[in-house]
Amino acid sequence: MEIYGRIQESESDEVVPFASVFFLGNPLLGTESGVNGEFSFEVPLTALPDTLSVSFVGYKSVKIPLGANHNDFILVRLDFEQQQLEELVFEAEENPAFDIIRQCRARSAQNHQRFQDGWEANRYVQTLLYMKDLDDWPVYQSMSKEAKRILEKYYEAPKSSAKGQIPIPVFAGEGQTIRKGMGSGNILEENVAYRRNGLGFDAESIFGSVLGDQRYRIDNLFQNSIIVLDKAISSPLSDFWRLHYDMWLVDSTAVVAEELSYKILFEPKVKSGIFFEGYLWINQQNYALMKVEMKLPNTSGINFLEGFFFSQTFQKNELGYYQSSTTNYQERIAGIPMVPKIMMNFSIQDQEAMHHLPKNLDSIEVMEVGENIVLDTTSELITQKFNHHFQAIEELERGSRIGLVAKSVNAFSSGFFDGPKYDVGHFLGFGLYNNLEGLRLGVGGRSMMGTEQWYFRAYGAYGFRDQRFKTLLDTKYIFHKEHYHILGLQYVNDLMPLATTSFARDPDEFTLRFLQWGDLARRNPFYYEKFDLNYSYRFSRDWILFANLRHYNYEQADISNEMSSEHTLDPMFSNELALGLRWTYDDKSVTNKNFRLFRSGAQRFPVLRLDYAHGRANYQSTILPYHRLILDIRNTNSPLLLLGETSYRLQFGKVFNALPYPFLQVHQGNGGLLHLAGTNQMMNAFEFVSDYWGSLTLRHFFNGTIMGRVPGLRWLNEKTKARLIVEANIVWGGLSEESRQFNQDYILGSDAAEGTDALFNTLDPNIPYLSFGYGLENIFRIFFVEYWHRLNYLDQPYDVQRNGFKIGFAIKF
């Protein structure tokens, strides 16, 4: 017979996915609720009478007696659990939970499979993102009814629901990986097969890749930080658990997987900080972690995150170690303007580890999208259970206004209007105005050309004042996307500020187009042409090789009508061969649709990249050989310090031999009101040039850890969610005497008097450029305001801004 029903919150009627449902008399008979809160499982007729137990972290458990003749739908309502910690009284001796946690951490390497080496295991992951409660939004009501007619083919309306609404799927993904134990907690995980589908957006975009990539799932509580959205949150089993969490032993008789366990309640010490609360079940005999249930409280301070619920169970395998068997968690997103509530559900199933799998990573073939994925030897076709989500998304995108709205939102966020075969954009390049080109109009697009291997992008623009065309052509052949094995050819011909053409930086679309607006003449613009034959290959998990064969042309723009200019450079060009190596430990980077590497959210280790180039420049028929070496180290949202998270970029470089200054390092400044990422704030747009340099850009988010501890500021943090931010730019560098003399003779003229080098300035190697700013971020959840100070290089023969505000836009969770 079938036992079926639905689980929801008693106050809000929200469904409760992944709740545990089982019979007290026979715990092997049970299941978990699905993403819609519903459950069903078959039991023998002899199983009744018995008592059904329903539980989930953060809620009071419910026990429902079922008679021998039961055959009705079961509606379960769960109430939030309120812990009365004041009833727990401890004498002078140490809190017993502390020793249990210490023992669990100390014995983790001998208890848990992930810390061993020489093992392999399959993993299967499901991801589902859907929208809820569209009928609560008047603008969506008519679209909701239209979508409901489509979705009724694939979903049953929730039984006994007060609203009777069907959730609208936005993204569905599933995949299989092979995990290999490398020892010391290190696991090599590689995608074997996957399929994804998104409503109104390409599932292979950054958003789809991060959602669907199994490597981004949460599964390891023994690391110091756990990544939720883009936040690195201290784990209750981290090295700093005593600093961040209070622990309480609440049950010494709990049973998990038929083993007697301690049940420990943990809560954050700082209520307004971003920390977890929940329960740990730890084996009484060997102190192995058996189970965890936790959530983020509503006051966690993560933007738009209404709820986070996580559960994970462990079991002892045939190798004698404990490993995760099932992991489920849900993220509830709400409060984004004009966007309904969004639910993200993730489900992980792990096969028991074995010493050697029948296949190794090199012999496994990636399955095509749409093929059935087999997780284990039972040959259960798991994707058959998930197919209706993919089918529903496809039909919604083809035949509903919800699909049209989703496409519009995607176009605004990505800059491209997605089409069946071609994407049109980037829309920031459609039109702009500056004092050299006048009105500039352009159009562009990209396409995979109906294949999985070929990528093509084109952009063309025309300036009505300078009467010149600008062009971008980029084509790539993708041998293997997972290995970042790509061969490409790119051609660029554009009018650009000199600093944006630098070999040491690759500006994003927004920064480039913004710097082409307005007073372009003051940014030392050049007509810049580049041919780039490029190749990349990930030859191991952590290493990527890059090779480039490039040709550059520089032609200085005529700015005489806009400002006085005594120096005009002759056209110049160079040819160079460049090699690069990129390393990061346990790399989880994904690629966007332009096949640029992207790191999502906080990651524990930085990216290191070393680049070498050898080339020959030509200026005034003089051949100038050169070498260039650059080391770049960067990380984003790193839990580098205990008080929040830090983003940084550290770079060192050297150009060997004398060259005209366009081939040197032109430090990108930003003297405007708008904060631009990757630029030096308070520095003028074209101010300093170096042929040896070091730079550090540092940005620290306190995430409420300061304001949450200071009386008065705590109230402001809790009411407005505003958070402190500090930022600094440090630039060290200089110009060798050889390069200084070359530019003096060839550009200023050999008869120019010493000290008339007014074309550009150089840094004193004994005095680094310093600027710093501080302010508030998360204002209205999208703005930040900083007040900046420039600390040196103040007495210059040109205007220098000493202090000023910077404003910016950043949607941060």
Structure characterization notes:
It is built from 10 helices and 42 strands. It starts with a strand and ends with a strand. The relative contact order is 0.08. Helix 6 (387-399) packs across helix 7. It has 813 residues and is mainly beta. The strands form 7 sheets. It has an 18-stranded antiparallel sheet that branches. A 10-stranded antiparallel sheet has the order 10-9-8-19-18-17-16-15-14-13, sandwiched between helices. The model is unreliable at 83-92, 158-162, 357-382 and 750-757 (pLDDT under 50). 12% of the residues lie in helices and 45% in strands.
Helix percentage: 10-25%
Strand content: 35-45%
Largest sheet: 18 strands, antiparallel
**Quaternary state of the chains:** single chain
What key attributes describe this structure?
813 residues, 18-stranded antiparallel sheet, 10-stranded antiparallel sheet, 12% helix
The gist of it:
α6 (387-399) crosses α7 (401-414).
Secondary structure blueprint with pairings:
Blueprint: E1 2-9, E2 20-23, E3 30-32, E4 38-42, E5 50-55, E6 62-66, E7 74-78, H1 96-106, H2 108-111, E8 117-132, H3 138-151, E9 168-183, E10 186-198, H4 206-212, E11 225-228, E12 231-234, H5 241-244, E13 245-256, E14 259-268, E15 277-283, E16 289-296, E17 305-316, E18 322-333, E19 341-350, H6 387-399, H7 401-414, E20 416-417, E21 422-425, E22 431-434, E23 438-447, E24 454-463, E25 468-480, E26 485-497, H8 509-515, E27 525-538, E28 543-556, E29 572-583, E30 590-591, E31 597-598, E32 607-619, E33 622-638, E34 645-656, E35 665-670, E36 680-681, E37 686-690, E38 692-701, H9 713-720, E39 723-734, H10 737-749, E40 769-779, E41 783-790, E42 803-809
Parallel strand pairs: 1-7, 35-36
Antiparallel strand pairs: 1-4, 2-3, 2-5, 5-6, 8-9, 8-19, 9-10, 11-12, 13-14, 14-15, 15-16, 16-17, 17-18, 18-19, 20-21, 21-23, 22-23, 23-24, 24-25, 25-26, 26-27, 27-28, 28-29, 29-32, 30-31, 32-33, 33-34, 34-38, 35-37, 38-39, 39-40, 40-41, 41-42
Helix pairs in contact: 6-7
